Amino acid sequence: MSTLEDRLRAIVGERGIVSDAAAREPHEVDWRGQYRGRAAVVVKPANTEEVAKVVSLLAAERIAIVPQGGNTSLCGASVPDDSGRQVVVNLSRMNRVRAVDTANNTMTVEAGCVLAALQKVADENDRLFPLSLGAEGSCEIGGNLSTNAGGTGVLRYGNTRELVLGLEVVLPDGRVWDGLRGLRKDNTGYDLKHLFVGAEGTLGIITAAVMKLFPKPRATATAIAAIEGPTAAVQLLSAMRGRCGDRITGFELLQRVCFDLVLKHIPGMRDPFLEPHPAYILVEISDSGTQAEARILLEEALGEAAEAGLIRDAVLASSDAQRLAFWGLRENISEAQKLDGVSIKHDVSVPISRVPEFFERTDRALAERFPDIRIVAFGHVGDGNIHYNCSKSERQAAAEFYKQAPDVNHLVYEVVTSLGGSISAEHGLGQLKREEIKRYKSELELDLMRSIKKTLDPGGIMNPGKVL
User: Fold this and answer.
1) Does one domain contain both 85 and 108?
2) Count: domains in the chain
3) Which end of the chain is more exposed for a tag (fewer CB within 10 A), N or C?
4) Is 226 in the same domain as 320?
5) Transmembrane ranges (predicted)?
6) CB-hemisphere CA count at 13 Å for 289?
7) Is the distance from CB of 453 to CB of 200 less than 8 angstroms?
8) Which of 380, 364, 341 is nearest to 415 (CA)?
């Protein structure tokens, strides 16, 4: 009698099965190394038809499915449990750009396309695909959609949910929903695509999407401004938006400790300032005008902010290489933290106006409860999303401190909730926050979510143990 692996191999071919234990290992552990599982099989379909056949087979056998893209999840959403009975369906082989429509400003892409590759395709077509995040060299658009990824361009372009027009999805019974419409107006009932965006693979497998493109900016100006802290950051954001309007495409807060970690662990990074400051804002504007005009606008806006006492100092990027170096300080924070040791991570959001209060209350409460705590905070102040990570400065102490995660989480989440915020801004829930969400969602919201799950996935085979 043929094994499950043999039956799956008959669908996807030899290239579509990862059978060697060493080759399977990267699919069974998350990026942070916090969650490890054991898959029955890792299968890599090459097209939507193969995905549908694989899902139909597994649904008939009531075998659980773990959809997976680049496996860069920070919440353990994309790895199997340790039962050895779940099948990982990895879509990395599905990496074709099916179409680019410059007149409609869209591209139709398969789920396994690496985000950086899609940015390049857009650029080659004189367009911009604005989704940008630290893992863009390895994360895949299917995973970005399944977690409703945010990133650094949300302030101007919105998160992934706002960048998608249509989806193709393999449902939990193997049927294929073809919703690949490049329409900006379609008022024919429920907008089904939004059920799957942010669902973390618990309702079906996204196999392709129609994504929005934008005119490529002709000019970009970038600077790092030294500031006192979160209050100045929010005040500076308001002043900059009043002066530059929607030209602001990035507005990132970095505490001094973030600089220190990147400078310590990432080769080639340099401090743009001669002396340290408490915190920094990385600000970028883009426009359709000339490079000189963009630089003058940013320089004048920062000059006015300095006169108003909102910034202590500022450095404007004088070249594209320096611009990339500035962004390197921001984008390498997570990698530097990983190299430095384990930390208790929080991806939270609050109303922009309450960001300073979040810092003030949470910093104080944690310091009182956990002496010598080290807080590494950074993020997208422009949309109220803060990555608020807690650890100790010594590696061994940090490892011991990690055991206090439930208490730390509770303290942070209570402050976030009291400010009308969310315990997950852009990373999702996965298995990390599956139980926590029960405290912060109303019973009605949870009932509605469970009802949707039961309707689409009555057998409960799609990414079980994640989200709900």
Assistant:
1) no
2) 4
3) N
4) yes
5) none
6) 11
7) no
8) 364
**Cα–Cα distance for residue pair 453/441, rounded to 1 Å:** 16
CB contact at 8 A, 71 and 26: yes
pTM of the model: 0.91
CATH number, position 178: 3.30.465.10
Q: Which of 251, 108, 274, 127 is nearest to 179 (CA)?
A: 108
Which H or E element spans position 450?
A: helix 443-456
In 3D space, the residue among 366, 364, 465 whose CA is nearest the CA of residue 409 turns out to be 366
Do 158 and 239 lie in one domain? The reply is: no
CB 226 within 8 A of CB 259: no
CATH code (residue 248): 3.30.70.2190
- The 3-state DSSP composition of the chain as helix, strand, coil percent (nearest 5) reads 40, 20, 35
49, two tokens: 């038809």
Following CA atoms 162, 164, 165, 170 in sequence, which dihedral angle do they give, to the nearest 10 degrees? -130
- Where is the domain boundary, 47, 71, 90? 90
Where in the sequence is the domain holding 187, given as residue range(s)? Answer: 97-215
Those residues with Cβ within 8 angstroms of residue 335's Cβ, 6 or more apart along the chain or in another chain: 134, 265, 266
Query: What is residue 365's DSSP assignment?
Result: H
Q: Residue 389: name the closest of 412, 368, 372 by CA.
A: 412
Tell me if 236 sits within 8 A of 227, measured CB to CB. yes
Residue with tokens 């926590």: 436
CATH of the domain at 46: 3.30.43.10
Residue 443: inside a domain, yes or no? no
Return phi, psi of residue 14, to 5°: -65, -40
Q: Which residue has the tokens 């139980």?
A: 435
C-alpha 10/C-alpha 422 separation (Å) is 45
Domain stops at, among 193, 215, 237? 215
For residue 195, give both structure tokens. 């059920």
Give me the tens of pLDDT residue by residue for the chain, a chain 468 residues long.
479 999 999 999 999 999 888 889 999 998 878 889 999 999 999 999 999 999 999 999 999 999 999 998 888 899 999 999 999 999 999 999 999 999 999 999 999 999 999 999 999 999 999 999 888 999 999 999 999 999 888 989 999 999 999 999 999 999 999 999 999 999 999 999 999 999 999 999 999 999 999 999 999 999 999 999 999 999 999 999 999 999 999 999 999 999 999 999 999 999 999 999 999 999 999 999 899 999 999 999 999 999 999 999 999 999 999 999 999 999 999 899 989 988 999 999 999 999 999 999 999 999 999 999 999 999 899 899 999 999 998 888 888 999 999 999 999 999 999 999 999 988 889 998 999 999 999 999 999 999 999 999 999 999 999 999
Which has the closest alpha carbon to 113: 209, 8, 196, 16? 209
